[in-house]
Amino acid sequence: MSAAFSIYDLVVLGAYFGFMLLVGWVFRRAITNTSDYFRGGGSMLWWMAGSSAFMTQFSAWTFTGAAAKAYQDGGIILILYFANALGFLVSFLLTAAKFRQTRVITAVEAVRRRFGRANEQVITWLQIPMGIVYAGIWLNALGLFFAAVFGFEVNTTIIMTGVAVLFISLFGGAWAVSASDFIQVLVLMLITVVATIFTLIRLGGVGDLISGFPADSFLGNDFNYSGIIYLWMIAIIIKQVANTNNLLDSSRYLCARNTNEARKAALLATVLFFVGPVIWFIPPMAAAILIPDLAAMFPNLNKPNEVAYVAICLEVLPAGMMGMLASGMFAATMSSMDSGLNRNAGIFVRNFYFTVCRPEAKEKELMLAGKVVTIALGLMIILIAIGLNMLKGMSLFNIMLQFGTLVAMPLTIPLILAVFVRRSPDWAVWSSIIAGLLNSFLVKIFVVPENIESWFSLSESITNREGNDLVLIFGVFTNLIVCVGWFFIACRLSKHIPEKREEEIKAFFKDVDTPVGEDDSDVGKDDPKVQIRLISRVALGYGSFMLLMTLIPNPIGGRLAFAGCGIVLIIISELLKRSGKVKAEES
């Protein structure tokens, strides 16, 4: 175990797991069918749905792979997260309402309604392996984080944390994950604010960070052509907006109680993504100044830069606070991995097992099947995370971005068009995906530094950073052209859509155009006052626990940090309690 990770941190971490088990136990009563298990019954209020949407969009990868980018190249990493904020803003203005109004339990059911059963199966069998790989990347990042904290071997921590995530997701379903998300958003933001303040105090201030960061320019290091970096920024914005506004990722809004709650959830995620990254990436940038040799600090890690955030927090955080941060990393990764576990299990059960294998299955059988599939997916995710740990050549940062560009984008582009282009043949989707994947294969094969230097007659060589950036740039722009172009060519080539499908598509868009209100049949019957009361009590308990941690023998600054965090949580608990009373009076 790291010398800076104290017995108090272990107690905090143990208390967190107790808290998670309690949340799962409390919310198990909310699960009566597959709708409850896979999307919270379509009953969640905006602050719960929004915090869950926010948490599913990042993971421990933010504090490992992305933090390594901040450590190496500085503030340019903010572009990636501000692009997320822009994506959620587009959701608030345009797509969140449409997605909630699809009135389905899983996103792939919306694909079936819009593009037919063949595409339902195509998307099912593409999404499941894609979700497993994503979850493997996130679990690998979490294992790396805990390995740095405890000093254990990375594969050991991957197995331990993977089993813990699987256990909580298995027994709590979407309710437990989303309920804990709200509290963990609060805790994570508070702890990262504390980490940033303590880091700046140690460093001397923002001015010292800007003047002392070891970079050639604000674009970072290791580049010869600034134009490549600017194109990378544009490509990242396009990629992240697409990532947050396609039909497959509509699942983050299906849990919302109604249309207005879904839109407000997207707005909350927007605000959090504009604020959060500014706080998150100051510590790893400061680590580049204060701890320039991470390899000496973590000699057993293949890529020590990926634990820059851990390193600086071990240096500056008071005793007990590192345990809180580790809890937040676990929660963030659990929310992201839920897309590889709970959501994928829901897709398999609802869109393959139920529709193809056992259409006569009852809810009890589907629930059991969902849990069995969740276990199987969890084991596969653990194996993939271990496999990724054996890759020596690529960083977590580039693995994540290139997978999202070359594999996920061909899938997401036609599913963005799904809710805007109202007349298109079903085969436009699967054929666009095939065209995009073929294009991605060609990009990965041919977009290498030697070819780029030859094609454009470059005088200086392409650096390793620029080589990785060019794969993303070519992947985004060519997939956009190929997938969108082929989709509209398919629309032009198809003059006739079968009458039955015409009727199904009209019914789909009628729902998409009709707001979900409180009296809608798709709204869960759970009383929102119960949600508010339960979360209020959890916030009060967590806040009280943090106040208790002021008893840890820390310097006055550390005690004040715990007191401040605890008071904020207790105030939020009281605000929630009053909100519940207002709702009770309204009803």
UniProtKB/TrEMBL annotation:
Keyword Membrane among UniProt keywords: yes
GO MF: symporter activity
PANTHER family registered for this protein in UniProt: SODIUM/PROLINE SYMPORTER-RELATED, SODIUM_PROLINE SYMPORTER
Main location class: membrane
Transmembrane regions: 6-27, 47-68, 74-94, 122-152, 158-178, 185-203, 223-244, 265-287, 307-333, 368-387, 399-420, 427-447, 470-491, 534-552, 558-576
Family: Belongs to the sodium:solute symporter (SSF) (TC 2.A.21) family.
GO CC, any one term: plasma membrane
Keyword Membrane annotated: yes
Catalytic activity: L-proline(in) + Na(+)(in) = L-proline(out) + Na(+)(out)
Highest rank taxon of the organism: Bacteria
One GO biological process term: sodium ion transport
Membrane topology annotation: Multi-pass membrane protein
Keyword terms: Cell membrane, Ion transport, Membrane, Sodium, Sodium transport, Symport, Transmembrane, Transmembrane helix, Transport
Name of the protein: Sodium:solute symporter family protein
Annotated compartments: Cell membrane
